[in-house]
Design brief:
Blueprint lengths: L1 E2 L4 E5 L6 E6 L1 E5 L4 E6 L2 E6 L8 E5 L8 E4 L2 E6 L2 E4 L9 E4 L11 E4 L4 E5 L3 E8 L2 E9 L1 E8 L2 E8 L4 E6 L4 E6 L5 H4 L1 E3 L2 E7 L4 E7 L4 E6 L4 E4 L2 E8 L2 E8 L1
Antiparallel strand pairs: 1-2, 2-3, 4-5, 5-6, 6-7, 8-9, 9-10, 10-11, 12-13, 13-14, 14-15, 16-17, 17-18, 18-19, 20-21, 21-22, 22-23, 24-25, 25-26
């Protein structure tokens, strides 16, 4: 997906680089299953890219085109205004439904909505993150953790969240399907260089008896494997490759089942 000169989005086939389609507007949300949503003023359209390009289909209209925070949850438009969620009506001809989430706190503001599979989604404020479920014209909060979302990566359960708390000093990876912590992230690490989140777990650097080691954890935080040392890794389906510089060039070592 790329931004074109005429304030639209172009879609590129990753195999051969050819342009397969274009849509006016800006990226609004995705559903982790191949569905992408684009907004242009107050209108939102959806594209099903799970099996290649398909023409956009109108999803609905935002109640306020200036409102920046929103998502599509289980095919339904959801907007955020302070601590209130505004839900697209279930029946045609009815007005939008407002759900006030006082549990978020008296001074909180919803900063981000992250949809997952089905009716589940994540609500992130300045200081707290919540797991939520869309239940008809209501929203149920299922879990709560201190901190705000600074990154999210799809996993086989939904999302893994990188959560920052204590003014950004404390970092942890959280399973968004349950709100449980997969692993804390040591403060001294450059997270973007050392933390890897993949479909079924994470890879993190930890102190070893000598130096450091790269440890893979599943989504429950249980160890899967470890490699002594630091450096880049390529992670595939039951395959891990590490790269190291040598006097002759680069050495690639692969490990697999």
């Amino acid at each position: 997906i790329g931004v074109s000169d005429d304030a639209g989005l172009t879609f590129i086939d990753p195999v051969d680089g050819t342009e397969v389609g274009a849509v006016a507007g800006e990226l609004f949300a995705n559903d982790l299953l191949g569905g992408w949503f684009v907004r242009a003023d107050d209108a939102v359209v959806g594209l099903d890219l799970s099996n290649g390009w398909s023409p956009p289909v109108r999803v609905g209209e935002l109640t306020d085109p200036e409102r920046a925070v929103g998502a599509v949850v289980d095919g339904r438009l959801v907007e955020a205004d302070g601590t209130t969620l505004i839900l697209e009506p279930l029946e045609a001809g009815e007005g939008p439904v407002e759900v006030a989430l006082r549990q978020l706190g008296p001074v909180a503001t919803i900063r981000e909505l992250l949809p997952m599979v089905g009716s589940t989604f994540v609500i992130s404020t300045e200081a707290t993150t919540f797991g939520a479920v869309l239940a008809g014209d209501d929203v149920e909060l299922r879990w709560e953790v201190d901190g705000r979302v600074v990154n999210s990566i799809p996993t086989e359960r939904g999302l893994a969240l990188l959560i920052a708390s204590a003014g950004g000093l404390d970092l942890a990876v959280v399973d968004a399907s349950t709100g449980t912590t997969i692993a804390p992230v040591p403060r001294e690490q450059d997270v973007l260089d050392t933390l890897r989140i993949v479909g079924n777990g994470i890879v993190i650097e930890r102190p070893a008896a000598i130096g450091v080691e790269r440890v893979a954890l599943d989504l429950d935080g249980d160890p899967l494997w470890s490699l002594i040392g630091s450096g880049p890794l390529a992670i595939g389906d039951e395959l891990v490759a590490e790269f190291a510089s040598t006097v002759d060039g680069v050495r690639i070592t692969a490990y697999g089942a």
